[in-house]
Specification:
Elements (H helix, E strand, L loop, with lengths): L1 E7 L3 H13 L7 E4 L4 E7 L3 H10 L4
Antiparallel strand pairs: 1-3, 2-3
Length: 63
């Protein structure tokens, strides 16, 4: 079963870096949506992959 996982960011660079990282981990581009104006990244992944995606999202958020 697939899930949509969302990540919201404070700036466009964070969102773009997240998108790049998701691509680098092997997630197909067709499964990733980035709205640079809204600073939002959405990913459609199998439920088993959700944890890895959330870790990538957290890695790119400002601390």
């Amino acid at each position: 079963m697939s899930k949509t996982v969302n990540g919201a960011y404070q700036d466009r660079d964070q969102a773009k870096n997240t998108w790049d990282d998701l691509i680098a981990t092997g997630i197909p581009r067709d499964n990733i949506y980035i709205d640079e104006d809204a600073k939002l990244v959405k990913v459609i992944v199998p439920a088993e992959t959700e944890r890895e995606v959330r870790e990538i999202f957290d890695r790119h958020k400002l601390q």
